[in-house]
Design goal:
Strand content of chain B: over 45%
Strand content of chain A: over 45%
Distance between the termini of chain A: 41 Å
Number of helices of chain A: 0
Number of strands of chain A: 11
Distance between the termini of chain B: 36 Å
Radius of gyration of chain A: 13 Å
Largest sheet of chain A: 6 strands, mixed
Helix content of chain B: under 10%
Oligomer: heterodimer
Number of strands of chain B: 11
Order of helices and strands of chain A: EEEEEEEEEEE
Helix content of chain A: under 10%
Chain lengths: 111, 113
């Protein structure tokens, strides 16, 4: 199986600063690492992902880093806005056998 | 974007009763998944399927069965519902392949009394 640890569980950041969430995984065969954002009462929505053939990916203000040797990946939200306040989940997958999720990070952006 | 729908959206069941949660996707994805989400546990994989007629056990399959009668439909069945199965259930679908994006349905809130 797979285990994914996600830290921190709660993150408060000031508007326009950066927020960083870190995840580690156990199974070296995992090759797909998506990040989901979930608003209260809504379903998880994919915001960015990275595959094992990459080390860095950026979509606008979102940056994902992958360190396969350390089995660690991270999400960095730059220039945070109030709309970035939500739950964020990292996940890992191998061979389309479903995603293993971290426990989530509640991000709050304050003025 | 893939269209994944779930029914019912809310369900109250009695302990020992049978519950069927349904999921439909219209983008011809091969793979479909059932997860449950609980506070403190995040999302956990219950069952998944690679196509019509196939079902596979996920990380927490006990107390659940799955059925994939067609490419579009994937059901989760609780033969004897228990209060511990009170949760929010999400269905997801994705293309075949090791790194295909999964699209989530809106979720079903199940309460077992």
């Amino acid at each position: 199986g797979e285990q994914v640890e996600q830290l921190p569980s709660i993150l408060r950041v000031q508007e326009r600063s950066s927020a960083s969430i870190n995840c580690t995984y156990e199974n070296s065969a995992s090759n797909y690492f998506p990040w989901y954002k979930q608003e209260p009462g809504e379903n998880p929505k994919l915001i960015i992902d990275i595959r094992s053939n990459m080390e860095r990916k950026q979509i606008q203000g979102l940056i994902v880093l992958l360190d396969k040797k350390a089995k660690r990946f991270s999400l960095h939200i730059t220039d945070t806005q109030p709309a970035d306040s939500a739950m964020y989940f990292c996940a890992a997958s191998r061979y389309a056998q479903g995603l293993t999720f971290g426990l989530g990070t509640r991000v709050s952006v304050f003025p | 974007e893939a269209a994944v729908t779930q029914s019912p959206r809310n369900k109250v069941a009695v302990t020992g009763g049978k519950v069927t949660l349904s999921c439909n996707q219209t983008n011809n994805h091969n793979n479909m998944y059932w997860y449950r989400q609980d506070t403190g546990h995040g999302l956990r994989l219950i069952h998944y399927s690679y196509g019509a007629g196939s079902t596979e056990k996920g990380d927490i399959p006990d107390g659940y069965k799955a059925s994939r009668p067609s490419q579009e439909n994937f059901s989760l069945i609780l033969e004897l519902a228990t209060p511990s199965q009170t949760s929010v259930y999400f269905c997801a679908s994705g293309d075949a392949g090791t790194d295909a994006e999964q699209f989530f349905g809106p979720g079903t809130r199940l309460t077992v009394l």
